[in-house]
Amino acid sequence: MPRTALEPRFQVEHLSILDSEGNLDAALEPKLSDRDLRSLYRAMLLGRRLDERMVRLQRQGRIGTFAPIKGQEASQLGSAFTLRRSDWMVPSFRETAAMVWRGWPIEKLLLFFSGHLEGGQPALEQHDLPITIPVATQLPHAVGLAYAAQYRGDDAVVMAYFGDGATSEGDFHEAMNFAGVWHVPLVFVCQNNQWAISVPLKKQTHSRTIAQKALAYGLPGIQVDGNDVLAVYAASREAVERARAGDGPTLIECVTYRLGVHTTADDPTKYRTDQEVAMWEQKDPLTRFRAYLEKRNLLEEGLEQQVDEEIAEAVRRFETAPAADPLAMFDHVYAELTPELTAQRDEMAARERATPSDTGDAGTTPPGATPMRGQRLTRR
Amino acid sequence: MAKLNMVKALNLALFQEMERDGDVLVLGEDVGVDGGVFRVTDDLQRTYGSQRVIDSPLAEAAIIGTAVGMALYGIKPVCEIQFSGFAFQCFHQIENHCARYRMRSQGRFHIPMVIRMPYGGGVRALEHHSESEEQFYAHIPGLKMVIPSGPRTARALLAAAIRDPDPVIFFEAKSLYHAAKEEVPDESESLPIGRAQTVREGDALTLIAYGAMLRVALEAADVLRDEDGVGVEVIDLLTVSPLDRDALVRSVKKTGRAVVVHEAPRSFGPGAEIAASIMDGAFLSLEAPVRRVAAHDVPFVGFAREKANVPDVPRVVAAVRETLAF
Fold first, then answer.
1. Cis peptide leading into B242, omega within 30 of 0?
2. What is the mean pLDDT of residues A351-366?
3. Which pLDDT value is given to residue A208?
4. Is residue B190 a part of any domain in this protein?
5. Over A48-91, what HEC string results?
6. pLDDT digits (tens, 9 = 90+) for B131-176
7. Looking at residue B10, which CATH number applies to its domain?
8. Which of A254, A257, A329, B51 could be stapled to A280 by a disulfide with Cβ–Cβ 3.0 to 4.6 Å?
9. Which CATH architecture has domain A13-319?
10. What is the side-by-side strand order in the sheet with B168-173?
11. Which helix (DSSP H) or strand (DSSP E) does residue A108 occupy?
């Protein structure tokens, strides 16, 4: 009995539509209206400018540690752009641009990154999960959401984000497996930004692509140029349509690059070269898309100022957000306070009356001692 | 009213809750066609179909993780982890997400799910099939930890757990599954989570136990009554967390002495929290230190040595006598 090849033969495609030289594959160019192209670019620019602003806010001590997204705008927005409001977005922790596009107010994100859980509360009508920090653990949640949507007979699609490092976690593989077996309406979006803090992709996996990992679970997988927003959009639209039609989940690997630090507590000079970063800067997703829009005469005058003003207004709202009431920490442990929590809350209330805690707010600190939330530190 | 063992009583609760609420869904390994390895979910899939009673792939983290996602959507999953010894493979989903989602989202989301797990020894089983790990869950803010002691409390507490808006870890003592039958009312019945029951009144000492150890405590109380003429009050905790401190304190204020019995290893176990709560609330009534009768601080010992490790009636009787003689 000879060895036989099993059918079907598996294959993985790579999709690129607009390359970093500005070459366009017109046959593959997605049909996006001028309005859509403009709002896609605006969202990418807002993502970039907000990211740069947040790094400065962090350096000034006005917000805490966060994970910058610079360089990954096309991966995030080309994908999130294909969702309806009623669909669900499941982020990890490096999706600020997509989260803002989905409707998270910028001031809420700033609140979140300055240690206020209020910033992690989605609005009631919002179909977005809050940021999940333990790597890949949000992926089974996405599968469960998609199963529930199907169970209820809703036509919602779920899109879940994660990085290249996450593909080493068991939760990624379990989620892919469950998604395949249950055939749920889900799109897995891997932002392969080449680095999981200091560990490069080649030390993360021996696979040639991340996309091919889908094949083991019986799902389609596709690799796209993650800095080409048109390619990300085209692949995502196809995957979302397939999911909505009841044809199951897809894995999209967006090959991109983290141009900035892992988080604001990271120093990438320890593990990667300036030449590598410079090489990827040549492939900047914004530059490429901007040139494309310029050719089509779709660039708006004064867009940068407009976006910066939107950010500045959000920063102002963030600075004047209400003080953190320490007693509110008991509000959302259970639906009802337990007797023990009531006792602990009462103890705290008595302590707070005697000596208010410093929660970084003007109302509870002596003037001049500590800056208000979001305000510049006088001594650094 | 029918006489049911604990397996049948739990099965009845699942049937009645699934009938009552179309959002209740059952998920786990072998829970469908097989009806669960202990048959607790028997016939549910035949009645409610494979979309609602799901034979999942074999992966604890994804069972709990996908159930979290379902709960975020408003579904009420009842998950079965085949043995509590395997729950460490989903512990991160329980601690990082089940327990925290209400807080993280500031009330926008909550996790109305139940995680059922058979626990405990006494069934001559292999490693990971005999341990008692309630202390891990009881320590996590945001979770509730429930352990019934027989068919009737099992049925009533499972119904309460399914209706609870927050995540409940529900331990079922394997040694109790077929141990005894009890009268269980036909009509739906629930018990409040967080409330202990005084199952025997007495004034000499308060004996506190839960799950499979309740029977041990009651038999010890019989011995003490018959041989020593001592009236021991026995409290069935039923919920480990949130702990019914009032019931414990009230009883010890009356008796002045307390002994706690549990199958989990002694150090940092529920007995320590119970003893501290009694100290806080009834210090001036105490006539003797609070004693703990528990498993030793050793990993799984093999069932050949299990009887030497898990509390039994003579150990409890001895601890009570020493406490009374203090």
1. yes
2. 68
3. 95
4. no
5. HHHHHHHHHHHHCCCCCCCCCCCCCHHHHHHHHCCCCCCCEEEC
6. 999 999 999 999 999 999 999 999 999 999 999 999 999 999 999 9
7. 3.40.50.970
8. A257
9. 3-Layer(aba) Sandwich (3.40)
10. B53-55, B24-28, B76-80, B114-119, B168-173, B144-146, B239-241
11. helix A106-112
Over residues A344-367, the mean pLDDT reads 75
**Is B178 considered catalytic here?**
no
- Distance (Å, rounded) from C-alpha B235 to C-alpha B195? 11
For chain B, give the number of residues: 326
Q: Are residues B211 and B309 in the same domain?
A: yes
**Conformational region of residue B63, where left means phi above 0, alpha means psi within -120 to 50, and beta covers everything else:** alpha
Q: How far apart are CA B32 and CA B42, in angstroms?
A: 7
Q: How many Cβ atoms are within 10 Å of B147's Cβ, its own excluded?
A: 32
Domain range list for chain A: 13-319, 326-358
**Catalytic site includes residue A258:** yes
State pLDDT tens for residues A12-66: 999 999 999 889 999 999 999 999 999 999 999 999 999 999 999 999 999 999 9
* Residue from the list A121, A142, A170 with its beta carbon closest to the beta carbon of B69: A142
Position B170: which residue type? F
Q: How far does A126 lie from chain B, in Å, by closest CA?
A: 10
Q: Residue A376's pLDDT is what?
A: 53
- Distance, CA of A132 to CA of A89 (rounded, Å): 12
- B44 or A22, greater pLDDT: B44
Residue with tokens 């809420």: A108
The residue among A238, A231, A294 whose CA lies nearest residue A24 is A231
Find where tokens 């070269």 sit: A273
- Predicted pLDDT of residue A22: 85
Is position B189 within any domain? no
